[in-house]
TrEMBL record:
Top-level taxon of origin: Archaea
Pfam family, one: PQQ_2
Entry protein name: PQQ-binding-like beta-propeller repeat protein
Chain ranges of the Pyrrolo-quinoline quinone repeat domain: 171-295, 304-444
Amino acid sequence: MDRGTKPSRRTVLAGASAMLVAGCFDVDATPEATGADWRMYGRGPGRTRHVPDARLSRDGVDVAWERQVSASSWLPPVVANGVGYCQYANGLFVLDPATGEGPNVGTYGGFGRGGPMAFGSTAAYDDGVLVVPYGDTVGGYAADPERWPDEVSGLGERRARWWTDGDETGTRPVGGVATDVRWGATPVVSGGSVVGVNGFSNTAWAVDTDDGSVHWRYDLRDAVENVSEPLGLVVDESTGTVVVGVRDVSDPGLVAIDVRDGTSKWTDESGDGGDLGPADRNALAAGDGRVYVVDGADSDETVRLRELDAKTGDTSWTRSFERHRHNGVAVGGEAIYHLGTVGDRSSADEFAVAAVDRADGEVHWEERLADEPGFDFGVTVQPPTIAGDCLLVPGGDGLHALDRTNGEHLWTFTELVGTAGGSETERVASTPAVVTDDRIVLGMTIGLYGLE
């Protein structure tokens, strides 16, 4: 582990243009996030997936509303200022999470195909900014729920206020070749900055939420010479640390950057490769001055969970699990919850859930669930959500709720859908469980549900 590697060779760019823009508008800034918001993939910039004050029933949930669609491929919803933005293959719902009411905006071409959206507060606009990934290019969109047209085609340029790839910013799309971006590497919003990565140039960057002006840009190869791709991105706001997971040839590593000025803090190249497959999208979380990372261990049937100090990069503890696949982590209170699958390619997998003490890495409890990740036009590997005293696990048979204190199975929500052969099968829970004001917003196969 190398602390304090050389600072970015890129000069920090001034954000004066954003202040000038803000000064031209007589509006109130968009309110900051509240307990009801779920503004990005993972809920917050640390992707902890934790809603501490939620109160969910221990006896089951009812359908408050549903919206049916003809094609699924749901992306994880975001919720901000009482509005949910929920995208699927052919459209975007802009709705009230309490009632499910709101327009279904048709989307075509490249709009929003690069991964989950994020929402940021702005000083210049009272509706905030909806951050829409297009691979390595990101668009900052007007989010006003009352002004969405019937359809948004292509890049939806009439809705975009700015575009950036972390190097250039403009009012028209910028950047070059778009690369596939893993969900966990899509942008996060921290304070007045959108923080992201560019897989083509192997850089991390931060831009202003108001106008996309570049705050800083960091070449990841300054810290890890043989970076082949960024794997994930989180921000620990308590220490102001951006942590980027990277692949160094075959093994994963970590690069820590100061969120304020883009200078390097530390690097960690002690990751162990293995074959995590789609798990890379959910392999990082951060909060309370600590960083959690999942990588391979001594075989492709074992995963390793580590806790690191966000300030120094020092490893506090390590815990290994026999797992066929890593699905994700959620961090809350005294425990971190690891979700994986057990089994092998010749037999059906089933979920394995473990609650791990954040103080020392000891396992509080470990349970199995007779379900596995579903397949919904491709692999859907969804992470868990902590909601009050419940742990919510999306799977092939629907959404499961466990008691987070002991792993007891509380309930499963599922809906049956007819098959071509005349039988019925369970609908797949194909998004994380987004919890807002004690309501769950969940994408399942060909329907979006509000559960209460």
